[in-house]
Amino acid sequence: MTEKLTQPERDSDLPTLLDNGWTHDADRDAIAKTFEFGNFIDAFGFMTRAAIWAEKWNHHPEWSNVYKTVEVTLTTHDVGGLSTLDLKLARKMDQLIG
Amino acid sequence: MTEKLTQPERDSDLPTLLDNGWTHDADRDAIAKTFEFGNFIDAFGFMTRAAIWAEKWNHHPEWSNVYKTVEVTLTTHDVGGLSTLDLKLARKMDQLIG
């Protein structure tokens, strides 16, 4: 079962994501990042690849797209905040554009 | 060149879309609709099909997705409001789920 991130997990895993452009919303205990691409095909291509990983892991982002921009928010509703699945999906998204 | 909808075009074409669940935001002169699906695969599948039409017509939605819900807003920035392309894309989206 998915559980909320422990403090040691936060201390060890969040800083790298924050260094990579993710921001932490303390009110929602969510992380968010804005991805910019060269055009719509690249932006939606990124979303498509991320969508398949999200479905595979049964953990889905909140996200929006306007032309070449994709805004992503990750949190785990079932636990009322961040879980390891959010960090895993965030790292995968960073890897997809890497 | 894309041009803003004329009043006769609004009178003839908008009512059908409003009957189909689209709403008109007068401030932005945009139309919006929330699409609900059975699951994420169906929601993102719809987005994927719509994305290819959008790119083909070089006219892209503002949209967001949370699990099985897709919220779409259509307007034409170049003309500061609705154009025939918005209505065309709205009708296509309705057709994709029809």
From TrEMBL, chains A, B:
Family listed: Belongs to the pterin-4-alpha-carbinolamine dehydratase family.
Enzymatic class: lyase
Entries under CDD domains matching the protein: PCD_DCoH_subfamily_b (cd00914)
Gene3D superfamilies on file: Transcriptional coactivator/pterin dehydratase
UniProt EC number: 4.2.1.96
Reaction(s) this enzyme catalyzes, per UniProt: (4aS,6R)-4a-hydroxy-L-erythro-5,6,7,8-tetrahydrobiopterin = (6R)-L-erythro-6,7-dihydrobiopterin + H2O
GO molecular function, one term: 4-alpha-hydroxytetrahydrobiopterin dehydratase activity
Matches recorded under InterPro entries: PCD_sf, Pterin_deHydtase
Assigned keywords, A-Z: Lyase
Designated name of the protein: Putative pterin-4-alpha-carbinolamine dehydratase
A Pfam family matched in the record: Pterin_4a
Organism of derivation: Parasulfitobacter algicola
